[in-house]
Write a structure and sequence with these properties.
Layout: E1 6-13, H1 16-27, E2 31-43, E3 49-52, E4 66-68, E5 80-85, H2 96-115, E6 123-126, E7 130-133, E8 138-147, E9 150-157, H3 186-198
Parallel strand pairs: 1-2
Antiparallel strand pairs: 1-4, 2-3, 2-5, 5-9, 6-7, 7-8, 8-9
Helix pairs in contact: 2-3
């Protein structure tokens, strides 16, 4: 993992998009990632609500933001948001969701190749901001919002499991022919590839 990448983690929050904007204002940083294990009111495209984790109330417990060195302690790919200054992105705004989705798909392809696993079916990009399996089940989604001279880019990937609230969702693990080992840093490696391909969008 690149040591220059700033990673922030909070166990639970309302939305990584909203938290990312708060951190951007408070800490005056313009290139970082925010992760959470549980979000109560995550936002998806077209006004959809994305809930991650088994949360039984709309109240978020008091918890602190931590700075991470990597994602090696995590077994699942968490809801995440990337904050980047708009003047660092050369991609036209109407193409940005698709290009971020393209970066995520490239990351998955590289990850599959690195670990030598086999997908049961192909994954494809769906304009403008989703990744689906060939059987039309949703694997991932992108949400790009413009806020205060920054792009707030939410990335959701169903890695270990798919949300029950989305009837057509599928997880990456369920698409893999082989059984994954318990001692590999699968999530950390996938995020490493994602960072690499997202950097191609920066001027």
């Amino acid at each position: 993992m690149n040591k220059n990448i700033n990673l922030f983690y909070i166990p639970q929050c309302m939305s990584t998009q909203d938290l990312a904007l708060e951190l951007c204002i408070e800490r005056k940083e313009d290139d970082f990632f925010v992760f959470t294990s549980q979000q109560v009111k995550g936002r998806g495209s077209q006004g959809r609500v994305w809930i991650q984790g088994d949360i039984l109330s709309d109240e978020v417990k008091e918890n602190k933001v931590e700075r991470l060195k990597d994602l090696k302690v995590f077994k699942d790919f968490m809801p995440m948001t990337w904050v980047i200054a708009q003047d660092k992105i050369t991609t036209p705004k109407e193409w940005l969701p698709y290009k971020v989705g393209e970066a995520l798909k490239k990351s998955i392809d590289s990850w599959v190749s690195f670990f030598g696993v086999t997908l049961k079916e192909d994954i494809v990009l769906k304009w403008p901001n989703d990744i689906y399996s060939a059987s039309h089940q949703k694997l991932a989604g992108i949400l790009c919002e413009s806020r205060k001279e920054h792009w707030i880019i939410g990335i959701g990937l169903n890695f270990q499991t798919a949300p029950k609230s989305v009837p057509d969702a599928i997880s990456l693990v369920s698409l893999i022919e082989e059984t994954l080992r318990d001692d590999e840093y699968y999530v950390d490696k996938l995020f490493e590839y994602l960072c690499f391909y997202l950097r191609e969008l920066i001027s």
